[in-house]
Write a sequence for this structure.
């Protein structure tokens, strides 16, 4: 963004001057007073159109791009026309009434300022669209036009030719300062350069057409509009110089010139379209309000004082009310275009209330809609760190802005937003407000993630419980059930032969006893699968020692169990730690060539830490087999973690199991 505060002030000053000129011109014309052109003919529309077109367009360009010359040139020409309108009509009316005093003759020299828009068109054509002269010949042509324009303006202010031309060729009019002197004669001669400036301006316009024919890409599209304006100016040139409808030709030329300068700027994004529209709405509304206010005040004041007093008083009142009216209208239009960006604290408060009002996962979707509506954005989305969308509103439009969402220093995701249509990106205020919004969304996304993980964990637990129930049902039904049935049938057979065939009865009883022993073994296997009995009989450390002795029988590996005073552990933690340690010892026995294995248990207030180390060698990272995966899943089910792999001393398995807080 190239806009500066000084640019905005000059834009406001230009519009204020134009409003005063427009108001004075309307009052003067409605009063039935004559208004001369450069040939002394009455006109009404030409200066009005020139002031408004050049003034509004110039103020707009100064406000947005004060670094480019176009706005300054247009504004300068508009202000000179305003000066002409304020000074020339009273002087012209005085001359018509027979007053040829010094002040009236000085006022007629203001007709020279009508030449400014003509010179400005040539200078704009030389510098469009980059703001710099188009090549070496363009720079030379620009210097010649500026020099000739200055000479023409000085000649018009110091010579007598302008006085006689504006007054319709009235005789006996001489310049009050230089009339009859050599300076006056030189000044009159300098006015002859006016047609030279016009011809050079046409040459500059032809240069625009030539550059358009040679240009490519976006420059060709920009020059196309200005080339059309040049062609229209060439068509209007003959009737203007021959005296056929000169006022109409000049009016149409001024409008076409401004339009063909502004349209490519808006359409091909020399700067922000939405911002220009916003400023246009502001100043258009202000212009309408002040013109109406000036007319009303002038009409009311003329009932009390004369018209000569009423118009200046109304102009002063209108000028004083400009700043306050502009600020109020600016806030209204900013709210329309940018939503709550102008009041970030209120916006954050409303968004926070919106975020807390909707429970659960729907809060993020509602929040995205609220952000898009509050800031007038076409697209807002919330994504996880891996790019998975969580919630979105609208349709994405380039460019996209991505703001990180963090919680306790950890990246949770991103807030994605599209810039407003017609804008090339976000400015500093947007960036600041989006950062504050992202600060609120980080904890919300973290809560959403935790909720989703909790739901998945609950689903896994329910699935695991049902799978375990089905396994128990299958083992009891297929294993223990037939065994008990067989025992009952065998006992029935033994009772039937107890009196008739005692040896057969004894055989059936022995068979039943063996079946009962097998059923008991199967039952113990099922019970051991639920929870190892050794944990209840020996405790965690003792159960690990017992199991380690059985696993290392006949193996050179020796296992050492290190455990201090362990508190009463939750059953789930105790079983998970036991099975993880047994799996780690089993892997060391099967795959390690080490001689020593150390199992260390350490319980703090918050967690139980299990570490199993061996001094064997490892060829590389451990593949995620069934055993390693099972260890990690057991820790994750309890909210812990498990790391398994090679270490500098051999192999290592470290598992952490959170412990519940003791009331």
């Amino acid at each position: 963004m190239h806009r500066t505060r000084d640019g905005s002030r000059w834009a406001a000053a230009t519009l204020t001057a134009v409003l005063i000129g427009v108001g004075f011109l309307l009052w003067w014309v409605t009063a039935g007073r004559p208004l001369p052109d450069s040939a002394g003919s009455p006109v009404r529309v030409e200066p009005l159109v020139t002031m408004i077109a050049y003034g509004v367009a110039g103020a707009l360009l100064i406000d947005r791009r004060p670094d480019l010359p176009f706005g300054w040139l247009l504004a300068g020409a508009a202000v000179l026309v305003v000066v002409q309108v304020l000074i020339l009509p009273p002087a012209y009316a005085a001359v018509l009434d027979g007053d040829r005093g010094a002040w009236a003759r000085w006022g007629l020299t203001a007709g020279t300022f009508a030449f400014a828009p003509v010179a400005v068109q040539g200078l704009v054509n030389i510098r469009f669209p980059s703001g710099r002269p188009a090549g070496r010949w363009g720079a030379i042509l620009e210097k010649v036009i500026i020099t000739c324009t200055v000479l023409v303006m000085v000649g018009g202010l110091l010579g007598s030719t302008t006085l006689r031309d504006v007054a319709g060729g009235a005789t006996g009019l001489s310049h009050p300062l230089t009339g009859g002197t050599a300076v006056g004669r030189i000044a009159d001669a300098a006015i002859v350069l006016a047609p030279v400036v016009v011809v050079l301006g046409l040459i500059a316009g032809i240069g625009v057409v030539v550059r358009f024919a040679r240009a490519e890409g976006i420059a060709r599209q920009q020059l196309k509009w200005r080339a059309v304006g040049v062609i229209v100016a060439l068509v209007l040139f003959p009737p203007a110089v021959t005296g056929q409808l000169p006022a109409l030709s000049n009016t149409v030329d001024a409008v076409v010139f401004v339009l063909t300068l502004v349209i490519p700027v808006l359409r091909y994004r020399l700067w922000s379209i939405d911002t220009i529209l916003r400023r246009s709405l502001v100043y258009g509304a202000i212009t309408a309000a002040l013109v109406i206010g000036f007319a009303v005040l002038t009409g009311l004041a003329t009932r009390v004082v004369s018209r000569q007093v009423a118009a200046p008083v109304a102009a002063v009142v209108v000028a004083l009310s400009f700043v306050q009216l502009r600020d109020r209208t600016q806030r209204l239009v900013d709210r329309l275009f940018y939503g709550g960006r102008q009041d970030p604290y209120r916006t954050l408060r409303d968004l926070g209330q919106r975020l807390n009002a909707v429970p659960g996962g729907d809060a993020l979707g509602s929040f995205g809609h609220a952000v898009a509506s509050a800031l007038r954005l076409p697209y807002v989305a919330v994504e996880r760190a891996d790019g998975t969308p969580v919630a979105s509103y609208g349709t994405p439009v380039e460019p996209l802005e991505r703001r990180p969402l963090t919680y306790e220093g950890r990246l949770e995701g991103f807030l994605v937003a599209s810039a407003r249509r017609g804008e090339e990106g976000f400015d500093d205020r947007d960036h600041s407000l989006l950062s504050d919004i992202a600060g609120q969304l980080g904890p919300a996304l973290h809560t959403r993630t935790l909720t989703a993980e909790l739901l998945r964990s609950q689903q896994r637990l329910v699935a695991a419980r049902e799978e375990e129930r089905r396994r128990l049902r299958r083992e009891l039904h297929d294993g223990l059930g037939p065994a008990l049935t067989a025992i009952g049938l065998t006992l029935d057979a033994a009772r039937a032969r107890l009196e008739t065939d005692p040896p057969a009865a004894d055989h059936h009883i022995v068979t039943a006893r063996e079946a009962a022993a097998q059923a008991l073994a199967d039952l113990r296997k099922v019970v051991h699968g639920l929870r190892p009995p050794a944990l209840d009989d020996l405790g965690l450390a003792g159960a690990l020692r017992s199991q380690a002795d059985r696993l290392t029988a006949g193996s050179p590996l020796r296992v050492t169990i290190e455990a201090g005073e362990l508190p009463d552990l939750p059953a789930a933690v105790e079983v998970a730690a036991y099975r993880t340690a047994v799996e780690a010892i089993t892997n060391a026995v099967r795959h390690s060539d080490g001689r020593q294995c150390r199992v260390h248990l350490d319980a703090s207030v918050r967690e139980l830490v299990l570490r199993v180390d061996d001094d064997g060698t490892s060829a590389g990272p451990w593949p995620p087999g069934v055993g390693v995966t099972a260890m990690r899943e057991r820790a994750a089910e309890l909210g812990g973690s498990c790391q398994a792999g090679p270490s500098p001393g051999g192999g290592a398995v470290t598992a952490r199991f959170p412990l519940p807080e003791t009331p």
Notes: The radius of gyration is 47 Å. The chain has a mean pLDDT of 76. The chain has 20 helices and nine strands. The longest strand covers residues 410-418.
